[in-house]
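Milestone M4 deliverable, item 7.
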Amino acid sequence: MKIAKLFVFIAILATTYSCINESEPTPKAMFELSGLERNDTAYVAFVGESFKVVRKGSGEFYTLYEGTTGKVFGASGALGVDFNHMDSVEVLYSTVGVYNLTVVATSTKNFADKFERDFKTEKIVVLDRRNQLSNFSLFINNEEYKGIIGGDNRVEVSVPDIYADSLSNALSIFMMSSGSAKAFIGTEQQFSNVSRNNFKNDLVYTIKSATNTTNTYTINVKTYISSSEKQIKALRLGKISNFEEVATIDEPNKTISIVANYASNLSQSNLVIDNSVNSIVYINGDKYNPSGSPKKYNLSKTGSNQVSAIRVVAQNRSEQTYTLNISQLPALTKFTFIGLNPMPEAQIDIEAKTVTIDVLKGTDITKLVASWEGSVGTVKIGTLAQANGVTVTDFTTPKVYTFYKGTTSSGLVSGDKYTVTVNVK
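Output delivered:
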């Protein structure tokens, strides 16, 4: 029995020793480049076209360095892509050049105490054979008309019929899939935003790649009946606090009426206009641009550049003009104190700019909370801002409320001043 136990112990020791010295197979960095052809000196790949590095050798770890910046084998800080558990890894180059693609195979033994490494490098010459037209437009009368590129390389461009004559000398704007590609009509090279041509009949563009492969596109321009729509559908002033001043539009009489809040600075107003598709809005002769930086307009009845009308030009060049009618609410339409029962109602004299309000005997007028209707802008007593329905004020003496116009500190304009007097009765 003791002898049998001894043999078992010896077997365990032998197995353990064997495991300790067990190693992964000797690494061999063998691989194939699937999808590439080789010339006498290197493999040839193309910009934007992927291929696969297929693992064929042996090793515990496989790492790919495809040779681009930061991924060059042996360079300081270079990063590789591990594909230990994959049969292959995909590679795609985005620029022309010569790259050293390296695969590194590594195996460890003695519990990673030692390791062996093997690597193999192949030269990859990357060329650019891209010859696609990626977009195409015609630029007529300061408007861009974009083409639709079909699967048959036919480019359809639609323009209004009023520009039919302009097609004889139209400016083209286009982009190609490669910066190295060139465009030609016949033998004449074409340049985006420079070349002009007669597009009344189909034109064939030939796109030639850096490797001289070619692709052709047929440009077909069609005209359609121009729209006569020239309507202002909606108009409002820029937002003041939570208050929006939306205009009332009388389409039959072509008038636009706006009742502005007192807080709006009508001499510096921001207009938001919704007009018919393909129509153009002009204000004081300038084209209205909804997507540009907001422009301020003078809607008041004083000062320079007053806006009294808005002109709308349809796509077919017909036009109509809307007359603007602007009015503005007074600073105060109602004034009271919250928390009192009954709530008192003030007498407001708009001409004299005074507010007189009576409260019941026994009311603590040193701690009153004023609430008002009218202006939604900034209101102050002296330099102290007043929050509507929130600020507590001592009314033992009359207080002067200043109502401002504008929405920002730089845009605030001091307006009417109302003197508020509280009488205890």
